[in-house]
Amino acid sequence: MRFQEHHHESEGQHLYPLVRARNGQARQWQKWRKREEQRGTCETTTSASPQQIWNILTDVTRIGEWSHECHSARWLDATTEAAPGVRFRGTSRSGIQRWSRTCTFTTVDEPRELAWTTHGGLYGDTTEWRYTLTPTPTTTTRITQTYRIHSLPVWFDRLIWLTNPAHHDRTEALRADLTRLAGLAEHPG
């Protein structure tokens, strides 16, 4: 299993933290800049077939069985099958924070690739989650999970950083998600 997280900054730009002025002066915020792109990739292999994994991934009501953060999801618009444009709503929890997002399937290529985009509504954050299932020559399946943050307001990025330490490095949590997903597919029922 491997995970790579990529952060890119424009040349000459830096992130500056909150600075307290000396001699009793008020706090001053230095210029904070949003990272241009935030993304990551995680992989594992399983003895389960792509179809077995697909059946779990495309049933959004089962997401709480394998995700460390999204604890439940429900179909929207009276639909119960994944297809491009179909929506569902996921409810997540990390530490004391709770939130929900409407998600839209963007890629549904059974049993090879599934992707959806989350929509943050008022907060304006948007993330794409993608799962690719690849049969290997050794009769196993490689599960590749990628995420890419498309939009995240600067103020919201900083708020998450300050209030949700679990989001500083999600490597182990995302690895554990894939391990749970593989386990469910290997041992159904």
From TrEMBL:
It comes from Nocardia acididurans. The lineage of its organism: Bacteria, Bacillati, Actinomycetota, Actinomycetes, Mycobacteriales. It comes from the Bacteria. This is SRPBCC family protein. Coiled coil: none annotated. SUPFAM superfamilies: Bet v1-like.
